Amino acid sequence: MNVLIWESDGASPSHSQKLLPNPTLLVLDRVEQDPTRFRLIVHVDQEPECPVCGQASRSRHSSYYRCLQDLPWQGMAVQVWLTVGRFRCRNKSCPREIFCERLPGVTRAYGRQTDRVSEIVRVVGYIAGGRPGQRLLIRLSIPTSDDTVLRRIRQAPVQPPASLPVPHLGVDDWAWKKRQDYGTILVNLDRHRVVDLLPDRSAVSFAEWLKQHPEVAVISRDRSGLYAEGANLGAPQAQQVADRFHLVVNGVLRRRVPVKIERNERQRCLIKNAGSWGFGRARNQRNGGIHSGATTGPR
Ligand SMILES: [Zn+2]
């Protein structure tokens, strides 16, 4: 059951008007609440333009309701109920006769979430993925499906790689199929964005890509010779540096190896001493080996 929270007197706008997406376009009429969510009843105040020819029209054909999911209030979900109009386009040369008014800054055509909620869903999807993102969003009172989370990620605007200079480039391989087939990934280190994926892992293709991007000044790469050769061929002017990821990984591995060797050596000493101290000797003999006796020695 809906409970009326606030209703407009039609004279002065509400202070809650500012909470709406694009408050210059939407006008708040009423706020209702049911046990699970708030419902904002709004109407649109604009002179709609035909999406094809751009001509404004006041010739209303009909109207319909749209329900949009918006940002939650105080831990409760929020729906925006809009009365949206259909209008006739009076431009004789326009192929569109009837159009639905668009809602810039609120939502896209056929959208069921406001743009600001779509952005939240997209960011959560990037960080958490489909189903974990869905569970997190439900806790944040933005109920949605895992399919929608994944769809928002796919709808993300793609950075135009050719239009952005790449002064600092990161290069590494990526797997089409692990241990079998690899390509090359190129990253703009200033923007932390992937700028291109090369289908193979070869010095020639990497060099060809670099020749098309003479602005590259620094190339961060692993310490294999393949990308070094490609960098020398395609961008001899660029400075090549070892990337931090591989340095850290290799450093960690190098630190771990002596620890492992030391651990094995210590275990061998315990086994040896266990034999000389006589602890667990009988059981070891019963087990047919000395290995288990190491755990029965002094600690
Ligand atoms: Zn038109």
Shape: elongated
Radius of gyration of CA atoms, rounded to a whole number:
32 Å
User: Hetero groups bound?
Assistant: zinc ion
Helix content: 25-40%
Structural class comes to alpha/beta
What's the number of helices?
7
User: How far is the N terminus from the C terminus?
Assistant: 70 Å
Instruction: Give the total of domains.
Output: 3
**Global mean pLDDT:** 82
Summarize the structure.
With 299 residues, this protein is of the alpha/beta class. Helices cover 31% and strands 28% of the residues. The strands form two sheets. Strands 1, 2, 3, 4, 5 and 6 form a six-stranded mixed sheet that branches. Strands 9-8-7-10-11 form a five-stranded mixed sheet.
Give an overview in words.
The structure is a single chain. By secondary structure, this protein is α/β, with parallel strands linked by helices. The chain folds into three domains: 3-11 and 18-112, no CATH class; 161-242, Nucleotidyltransferase, domain 5, CATH 3.30.420.10; 246-296. 31% of the residues lie in helices and 28% in strands. The protein is built from seven helices and eleven strands. It has helices at 115-128, 130-139, 146-154, 203-211, 225-234, 244-277, 281-287, and strands at residues 3-7, 26-33, 37-44, 60-73, 76-88, 98-100, 168-177, 181-188, 193-198, 218-221, 239-242. Strands 1, 2, 3, 4, 5 and 6 form a six-stranded mixed sheet that branches. The longest helix has 34 residues, at 244-277. The protein is elongated. Mean pLDDT is 82; it is low at 275-299. It binds zinc ion. Zinc ion (ZN) binds next to loops.
